[in-house]
Amino acid sequence: MRGGEFADLQAFAAIARHGHFARAAAELGVSPSALSQTMRHLEERLGVRLLHRTTRSVALTEAGARLLERLVPVFEGLDAALEGINAFRERPTGTLRLTAPRSATVHFLQPLFVRFHEKYPDVALDITVDDAVVDIVAAGFDAGLRLGERLEQDMVAVKLGGPLRQLAVASPGYLARHGTPRTPEELLNHTCINWRQSGSLALYPWEFAREGKWFEVAVKGPLILNDRRLAIEAAMEGLGIAFWSESFMRPFIDEGRLVPMLEEWSPPFPGFYLHHPSGRQMPAALRALIDMLKESFPAK
Q1: Tens digit of each residue's pLDDT (9 = 90 or more) over 192-233
Q2: What is the fold of 3-90?
Q3: What is the domain class of 166-265 according to CATH?
Q4: What pLDDT is recorded for position 1?
Q5: Orientation angle between helical segments 32-46 and 21-28, nearest 10 degrees
Q6: Roughly what angle, to the nearest 10 degrees, separates helices 62-90 and 284-296?
Q7: Per the database entry, which stretches of residues form a coiled coil (predicted)?
Q8: Are 3-90 and 166-265 in the same CATH fold?
Q9: Is 88 or 125 the better-scoring residue by pLDDT?
Q10: At 78, phi and psi to the nearest 5?
């Protein structure tokens, strides 16, 4: 059905509802003469008379009554569909698909699970925990959390929290047995626990900075994992030196289970952002999550 034919049927339904051309024309925002011409064209196209016209009133013919009987549920269904779409725009509802690395999930999303559900019970959070860099559009996600240095230029980015810095850490027992490295290069003489992102063959680089210039140290060791938490647990058990963001290891450092080192070689870098595709129409559920994240983890 073409758009003009649909508009003609809407005009017919308005006339039938009001029983009067003038009132129907006022509802549709057209002149009575234009509405009368629309009906004549509709009847000519269908090859059947739909209305009985008099100078005072309008009545449906048998064909018109039968057509209206079929049209009413169609228009009601369309109204219901549009109301459902409005609900997505105005009230947080539906499923919100997110992807985030484990560290960001634990730090930013997990603390909000209960509060977000209590405030927005009609929203289901579908979260894929993945340390790999994901194309959120191609993978069908509404948004993702990622380090600022890895964001695509065409994404809308919302800063969460402050900058991060990565530290080399080891257990007190390991350092007592093997000594503490004083420079990043001395890590080459130590047992280190490597990490790689899911879906990648490359080891994650251990990056340090000297006089404002960043450089990498290719450490070696007996264990390679794609789960940072397991790497940290291996370090706490004394296997070797691990490397991760300070904020996520801080509880273990404060408990004395891990000892940071080379801190003067580890300046901060941009932290995490929530990113989503650019566009004017943002789902209400995503808007609600962004607002709660910004309130809980204001940019620093």
Answers
A1: 999 988 777 889 899 999 888 999 999 999 999 988 889 999
A2: Arc Repressor Mutant, subunit A (1.10.10)
A3: alpha beta
A4: 46
A5: 100
A6: 10
A7: none
A8: no
A9: 125
A10: -65, -40
